[in-house]
Amino acid sequence: MSLTIQTYLADMPAGFWFFASFCISFLVAAIAYPAIIYVAYRKDIMAVPSSRSAHTKKVPNLGGVGIFMGVFFVLAMIGGCLGLSDLMFLMAGLIILFFLGVKDDLVILTAGKKFGSQILVSLMIIVLMDIRIHSFGGVFGLHDLSYLPSVSFTVFVFVLLINAYNLIDGIDGLAGSVGLLSSLTFGVFFVSIGLMEPALVSFALVGALVPFLYYNFSGKKKMFMGDTGTMIVGFLLAYLCVAFIGINQNLTVPETLGNSAILGIAFVFYPLMDTLRVFVVRAFQGKSPFTADKNHIHHRLLNLGLNHTQSTIFIVLCSMVLGVLAFYTQELNINLQAILVIACGMLLFLFPYCFERREGKVYFLKHYRSRIFDISN
């Protein structure tokens, strides 16, 4: 690239690059998805429904390939134009997770290999990019972390979010919509304080998820994200969440948010809450926490008579309410805000368990006999 072109591109306003990251990712992914669906049908690379599936037909499950292509193309092209060398580490991590995910979608990987690779990729980002959680911000009396505890805790957060995101991918639109809402929220924040690299990642992810949701909700051209997609999106959301918390804990950065830890939790509360609840239920049942079942919150909503779209909308709206609550209560004492956000989040996401469905009718609580509403039609 000539010096003249480099100089011209460097002078482009930041808003241009944010918009370009969305548009380029959108176009690359939108072009890739039909080709992926075609190849999946020709080569029979499909998700076969099981006893716990919410679907009854085989569906292509390599949507994550399109998400990877959209995001990776943006990071490579725009990162190269702007000389954002740190994005190279993120790209390296994406490549590892991409091949890991594709192999898992095709032949199934052991849990040990998946966890080991996730820890390795997380360490790459945390150590080489110095993206980590420096402090608990005074939540419940916990403050600054020294380097090794900070790195260890941040690795735990990365691996937890990657796998929590994987676990919520059970109905149409849910994983994509939660990812879209979270990445868009983070992106708006990064733009507001002028941080180029995480903002580009945010809008590249939004651009790849928008066309994916079209196919994920489609009746005739349906495709799933697969483990490739859930690991890549979960990894990118973990990066954005940790970057959001870490940047707000940096006292040299202007316009930071003092309650970044609480806001970060609010933005990813649903996958964390669902994972925690499912693991507790399985533990009480004497099962491995990684045993597949139908105990997720979205399964409960389906049992109450909601369809996939309605269940997804309910969960996304709850996530939005929690995010707004966390944002508008940031003037409160940090511990009070933590209790308020966590309590409200638990009430919202456990609300469906206050109802039961019998013979096409939904009743409030197990022993409450008055009909709440009739969904028999």
UniProtKB/TrEMBL annotation:
Alphabetized PROSITE patterns for the sequence: MRAY_2
Organism: Cerina litoralis
GO cellular component, as recorded: plasma membrane
Main location: membrane
One Pfam family cited in the UniProt record for this chain: Glycos_transf_4
The protein's name: Undecaprenyl/decaprenyl-phosphate alpha-N-acetylglucosaminyl 1-phosphate transferase
Superkingdom of origin organism: Bacteria
Magnesium found in the keyword field: yes
InterPro entries (UniProt xref): Glycosyl_transferase_4, PNAcMuramoyl-5peptid_Trfase_CS
Chain residues that bind Mg(2+): N166, D227
